[in-house]
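Box 3.1 A note on notation
Throughout this textbook, protein chains are presented in two layers. The first layer is the amino acid sequence; the second is a token string describing backbone geometry. Keep the layers aligned when reading.
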Amino acid sequence: MNNNLPPCPQCSGTYTYETGALLTCPECGHEWSPSEGSTEPASGSRVIKDSVGNVLTDGDTVTVVKTLKVKGSPTGIKAGTKVRNIRLVDGVDGHDIDCKVDGFGAMQLKSAVVKKA
């Protein structure tokens, strides 16, 4: 078995093997060509960047860069508020960060309104 094969781009499985000209993942059944697999990110997901272009990852701490209005709250979220332990998701309407904001609870934010701390 060749240990130099890349992980599966779909499920990140490490038990890939060659089937003729293709690579196959026994865990999810995905088949791809070796040249196709090298162009995709290793995690198999899209890259999410903050307002200044830094790449965000799960567990990062970010700072809100502009004051945000929140339905049901008279004050909203002020610029400079730190949000810890974010989680990246495929949200609705561009909201791709799932987090808990102190004083507001769980909510989703757009990556365009935060900066990596």
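The beta strands are 17-19, 22-24, 31-32, 62-64, 82-83, 87-88, 95-101, 105-110, 114-116. The first strand starts at residue 17 and ends at 19.
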